Amino acid sequence: STDAGRPRRGTKIIDATLVDCTREEIKDIVKNTKDRRGTLTESAISQEFVRKHPPKLNRGHYRMNAIRQVAAKAQIIKGLKVLAENGTKIHPTPEIRKENAPESGIVEFNSPSYSVLECEGEVLVSVKRHHGSKGRAVVYFSTQDLTAQESVHYVSTSGEVVFEDGDTQEKSIRIPIIDNDVRNADMVFTVKLASDTCMLGEVKFAIVTIIDDDLPGEIQFASPVVQVQESQGKVRVKVIRDNGSTGSLIVHYRTQDGVGSNAAVAPEDYEVVQGHMHFNTGETTKYIEVGIVDDSQYEKTEHFFICLTGVEGKAGGKLGQPHKCRVDIVSDDRMVELVENVLSKVQKESTMIQAFSNSWVQQFKDAMTIGGDGEEVSNMAYVMHFFTFFWKVLFACIPPTTMKNGWACFAVSLMFIGLVTAMVAEIAGLLGCVMGLEDSVTAITFVALG
Q1: Which H helix or E strand runs over 412?
Q2: Strand, coil or helix: what is 50?
Q3: DSSP label at 75?
Q4: In sequence order, which residues have a C-beta less than 8 Å from that of residue 329 and are 6 or more positions away?
Q5: Nearest-angstrom CA–CA distance, 260 and 266
Q6: How far is residue 423 from each of residues 171, 368, 389, 427, 433, measured CA to CA in Å?
Q7: How crowded is the C-beta side of 289, counted as CA atoms within 13 Å?
Q8: What is the value of pTM for the model shown?
Q9: Among 106, 130, 166, 311, which is most exposed with the fewest C-beta within 10 angstroms?
Q10: What's the pLDDT tens digit per position in 235-278?
């Protein structure tokens, strides 16, 4: 909205979640969108944001949508099919809020997933109590096989966790892990909660992954794409050791210039790095650090690569996927511009369109247009547009809703409604006279039904 509190032209009626979004969240979506789609277009980022925050629709939205469909006008709800195809819930399950929680509180796992090295001997799974602490709460837990088998990979465990009156401190469940010498893939099992005395939260199942450390493992990057702002001066790229951690490995790496018109070139844009890192037995994470040159100039996004070139070690080991990571250097000015542009595009990519206008020009344009941008127009839409064209153009003469804080629109709308009502009453009276109907019958059948 403008400083005067009135909406600008093109402003969308969208969910409050979108309005309250932060620039930091959009920056995170920038990275996630790029990781999955390999692109950094503003439309892709704004579509990703709308996918994560679908609008909450009520009966009024569907009613307005139906009326607009009859008049062959742009739909208010036009993206539900797309959201549904992407797996987004149009009406997400409401989360348990503090005001809806019982006085005894809510009990659930602290995290939905845990991982443990086979050699560590046990895994600790945390249970928490929140949104209340009145009375004694007892929850029962038990383990269940998935790909991991009890007595082979872990010890089947069951029991109870007790929270006394006023107790909100986290509790830990200890589950023994069996360390064997058999080389196999990572195994998983689940831990579930049950209770008759308190409410369970959404996280009542936890997945535990047993990382097999009998294999030397595969060395790879944690992400195929990493983004860094030019002003940060350096970038740290995470390298992981997956599917085992037995034995000592030496991993060789080097940097490589980018390709194309947006290629970053050393040493003008980044510092050349070439070397090796050591993974000792049990180590699963290392970092490669590369210096970034900040020239304080506005530039397009540039990129270079960090490549893992080989693995050495008596235990074996090999390179996994991805073993080549692209590093995007984003100018700070570009990031600011990108975030601001995405903020303006989020509303356009949402499923809600404007139900008001700021000018007569826009109203007449909407009245003479069939459907909205990007919508498929059916044959019935053309027919309804033909029959309703006069009325749409007529009512486009009503002042815009933003004029005089809406009072002009309100007053003129009442006049138009009275005019239409008088026309309907007159036509109904003439028709009733011709057909020989009583005034009461005419009023009910024609005037009241419009």
Answers
A1: helix 407-435
A2: helix
A3: P
A4: 228, 229, 230, 264, 269, 270, 292, 301, 302, 303, 304
A5: 15
A6: 74, 24, 18, 6, 15
A7: 3
A8: 0.39
A9: 166
A10: 999 999 887 777 889 999 999 999 988 888 998 889 999 999 99
